[in-house]
Amino acid sequence: MIELDHVSRRFGEQLAVDDVSFAVERGTITVIVGTSGSGKSTTLRMINRLIEPTSGTITIDGKDTTAVSGEELRRGIGYVIQGNGLFPHWTVARNIATVPTLLGWDSAKIARRVDELLALFSMKPEDFREKFPHQLSGGEQQRVGVARALAAEPGLLLMDEPFGALDPIIRAKAQEDLLAVQRRLGITVVLVTHDMEEAIHLGDRIAVMDGGKLLQYAPPAEILAKPAPGFVAKLVDGADRPFRLLSLAPVSSIVEPGTAEGPPILETATLRDALSELLWHRRDALPVTAADGSTRGKISLSNLVAHAGGAA
Amino acid sequence: MSRLIGPAARLSALALLLALVLRPDWFEPILKPFTENNAPAIYTQSSLLSLTLAHLGLVAVASVIGTALALVMGVFVTRPMGAEFLPLSRSLVNIGQTFPPVAVLALAVPVVGFGLKPTLIALVLYGLLPIFENTITGLKEVPENVVEAARGMGLSPQQQLFRVELPLALPVILAGIRLSVVINMGTATIGSTVAAKGLGEVIIAGLLTSNTAFILQGGIIVALLAVLLYDALSILENRIAKRTGRLAEVAG
Amino acid sequence: MTDASQTAAAPVPLSARLDRVGVVVALIAIVGMDWQPFATLKPNRLVSGQGLGLGSALPTFWAAIGIGILSLATILAVLRTGARLRLATGIVSLLMLALLIGLVPAHVVPPDNSFARVSPGAGFWLMALAFAVLTTDAIAKLKLGPLARLLLLAAAIAATALILGSGHWDGLSILKEYATNADKFWREGRQHILLAVASLAAAIVVGLPLGIACHRHATLRGVTLPVLNIIQTVPSMAMYGLMIVPLGLFAASFPIAAQLGIRGIGTAPALIALFLYSLLPVVANTVVGLAEVRRSVVEAAEGMGMTKHQRLMQVELPLALPVILTGIRIVLVQNIGLVTIAALIGGGGFGTFVFQGIGQAATDLVLLGAVPTIALAFTAAVLLDAVIELTERRRL
Questions:
Q1: C366/B109 CB distance under 8 A
Q2: According to the model, what pLDDT value does residue A283 have?
Q3: CATH fit for domain B7-244, picks 2.60.120.200, 1.10.3720.10, 1.20.120.450, 3.90.550.10
């Protein structure tokens, strides 16, 4: 668990981060979202002390981050930035091995770890180990960047606009990869983005920042349904708000008993996908199935619509 | 490197230079301790003013000729007609710049004899290299879409060159000229060893007669002259670069 | 690259079958072969001599072979041919010229005459220039990689050494000049290289940390770079001259310094002047190289917990290396040239022969100093260019 307690940061005259407090649960993804200059990156960088807070304390699992040196702290925390920051003069393997090497792991263990991580990100170790970053595609570079950050098995991963430089298709894939890896390893992730869509998609909780202040810290559904008045409301306001809300819950959450005609929908699909299918096939209800093909019930348009509205 | 020196330093350097050249006798008390056996402290073989003018004249003539040649060649190899010469030109410029100026000077002597001629040849040949190089770089760096736009608006190749490409390449070309002038100042000084009239004469005279006062006198004048000239050209270059809206990245 | 005239109908016009660079090469070669003396014969070292054409300078057999091969090469140069063939043509022609010029002395000087001097004439130099241009053009068009270029350089050095070692050129006046100066030649050569390399080494030792400090502190950078720029602007002869004064005073006030060989003239002022000239390229390129390392890469290094020192040694300096090496290349080539002038203040080096030669109006002596200087500078340039390219290979 990470706790920020009344943390502020001043750059000269300017208060970049203004008295921010929040806590991040172990094993969850927290997304800090805001426009540029909102203080979101500064907040993230104070967690691994790339920037020192002017006042306030930050603890990780109850330990004050200032208890150890900045370098030692950072070696225990994964860090991914926009444009990946891979070292162009090192091979993929050596890039991934950066922190384990700094920590003094023996070479056999490092080699094993490199292969393990490459496999985790579906890159064949024997094909990719000896490649240089410029020989990789944008998506591969991004994956190596995340693999590098995870190399020393950190419990916490900090990501600063990690998908900012990717084109939309690769970006969607990278987001799915991140979700899968996070679930599998159970790590804690704090991610910064300016993209509300991305925040809603990835975050277990979202922290909205503006002008250095934390405006709202809540699960995505709550941000959408009950946004704090002012900036947050304006941010989530828009024609597609109902669809965003629907995209947060799986079909299984509102499945009803009974049967219906038409092409079946997987229970793990989002409500947004279900709505799309219902509209497209001009039906009031469609059958719901599990991954193994067994029928679970049906989903109806009326029930779905009831879940798509904000606070009444 | 917009300005080498501040305005105050620039003015004092200029004042010192003028005093050294026009009123050398003022400095006799300072220079006297550097002489031995009652040797003269001030160079009087020729007037320092005439040597300075000869020196500057030589550099000016060489730089004008060198610039003209380099510009014509640079434009030629970047046109479709001269494109075949482009890789060769780049290599030759590269190789040419490994030739030490003094070697060019010394090798010109057997061909044309002593005096002004070998010095002028060395200055022109060696000085045109940086201008040629920067002309090519400057013209090649003009953004393709700007030239394309000019073509699209119906400018003839000449109009494209004179109204679009050369003005945009000007800051880089000027940086080359500045570099060339500085090199020429140095080579002209060495020219005195092959009997070209110039300020090197004072230094050589000092070296030959072990008269440190002469060496100091000549050395300081040449150094001040070179630095002030370089500075003046930098200022000019900056003015023009600001007008064209971009700064020369290829610095000297 | 397409010729406008090439779109015309059937028979390809002559202009499209001709290589433009080749035409220039051929013009120079033809002027050299037909209108200028191939060699010059002088009764002794100092008087001016008489020019000899290819026909009269060589035995008939060799003259015929020479004219045949060089004419063929000229024709090949003019025609639009592949770059590899052009490279071969250029190299063969240069070797041919090297072979021919060595045959002249034995043919035109009676064996018992030890005063007469034979040197390459304008025709030889023009043809050498023409075929050197052809070779250079072919190398440029082939876009040879760094290793291939190093190989060519090694081959050129080996060929020159072989010819010199075989004694084939011993009859030429420049080598006669060498023979009378052999000891001094190697001594001055060592001194030349020592001055150039020692000043460079000192500049790296001082300039690299200074450059790193300038990269980190804008104020220091704002002071250092303009000062170094001013130093670089001072003409070399003035610089060498101005070094004499403080060092002379230093030696006069500290006799122990004088005993150590520090004097107003000689090696010490030359070394210091060269060192001062060398600083700007090293410092400026270190600053530029470090500034060009991408922000995200440095930040990633910091974010992963590298210390400042680890970042510098493992990430920043390796990435800045090609730019820093470019500065070192500039310095080395520049120094090899500037050392020549150090001879004026008793610093030694090949410049000694150049200025002695100028003083005695002895061209051969000038060449004995100038040719090795140019060869050294050229070798250093090719060598370092290749090294720089090798270090650049893995960049994003």
A1: yes
A2: 86
A3: 1.10.3720.10
